């Protein structure tokens, strides 16, 4: 009789990649929705102007963020009106595909924090932050079943080269 026991299904090998991968894809889908809605609605300079004006007159918006919206967003509303739907769509594509997963999840948190600071509260934003936290907490698991899982990481390539050179 063999000493080998059947390998037990573990959190690390099965459940974590499934859950973290699902969180990544769900977060990406929510970002895609945000970006597509803005494109379809013709989001642009006027919408950024609305954010700047709303922040300036809203006592719930911190002073530093009021200054940011006025000096940065207010200085180039057309640019930011074009960039925001592009950013949201790009985050969605990257997360659904599983490319640049950690930077996309981190950018997700930064974007959502800026929306909250502007007092732009939407029901899905807390959900999106939670999903971002899952992806950032379990980055290797979140890359399972993604394009990046099919391509070796630079760290893996370097380790493989070192092993080959050492032999």
Describe the structure.
The chain starts with 10 loop residues before the first helix and ends with a helix. It is 76% helix and 0% strand. The chain has helices at residues 11-41, 45-56, 63-73, 77-97, 101-117, 124-137, 139-142, 147-150, 154-166. Helix 1 runs antiparallel to helix 6 (124-137) and helix 5 (101-117) packs antiparallel against helix 6 (124-137). The chain is an all-alpha fold. The longest helix is centred in the first third of the chain and has 31 residues, at 11-41. It contains 9 helices and no strands. It is elongated.
Instruction: Output the structural class.
Output: mainly alpha
Profile the largest sheet.
none
Strand residues, percent: under 5%
Number of strands: 0
Ranges with pLDDT <50 over ≥5 residues?
A: none
Which helices and strands, and how do they pair?
Elements: H1 11-41, H2 45-56, H3 63-73, H4 77-97, H5 101-117, H6 124-137, H7 139-142, H8 147-150, H9 154-166
Helix pairs in contact: 1-4, 1-6, 2-3, 2-4, 4-5, 5-6
Summary keywords:
about 170 residues, about 0% strand, elongated
Provide a short characterization of the protein structure:
The protein has 167 residues and is mainly alpha-helical. The chain contains nine helices and no strands.
